[in-house]
Amino acid sequence: MMKHRIKSFLFILTPLFLILGACSNIENKHDGEMAEEMEHGEMNHSSSGDVPDGLKEASTPKYELGSKAIIKVDHMEGMKDAKATISGAYETVVYTVTYTPTTGGEKVEDHKWVIHEELKDFSDQPYQPGEAVVINADHMKGMNGAAATIDSAEDMTVYMVDYMPTTGGDEVKNHKWVTESELEPVE
What we know:
Layout: H1 2-41, E1 56-57, E2 68-71, E3 83-99, E4 108-115, E5 132-134, E6 147-163, E7 172-179, E8 183-185
Antiparallel strand pairs: 1-3, 2-3, 2-8, 3-4, 3-6, 5-6, 6-7
């Protein structure tokens, strides 16, 4: 009689444990996705301000070092319409790239911006759309060392900027990169 009760008890508990285990896995997966979203949303996009070897300062930039401008793009949350201070202006070839992060995850398409001097073993000549390169910059997690394809290339002035996100939070220092067309004079 006792063996029958134990078997019945186990018969009832086993499916319950399986259901609870499955719910736990779903919840953990969901928590992981939430953490990843928060990680991207809360990333501090400040940098040391170091620039790659060979990068040339712009001789006559539209926005001079220390001047103010309004950022008109939203490469990341809190950037659009933020007031920026120019912390660097450089003449280079600017690329949009598609790459798969070295940390795994989905392919990042049309990433703006990587400059010529941030590509591994860069040559004297600019790369053309469709060419394969390796990124030697860490603007985003999983970017440094990632294999990439050039989507577009343009010779222009790029800026490093400091700004306070419009969504609040800490000031972003030495953000790389914003192009001249993505800035607007402060009125």
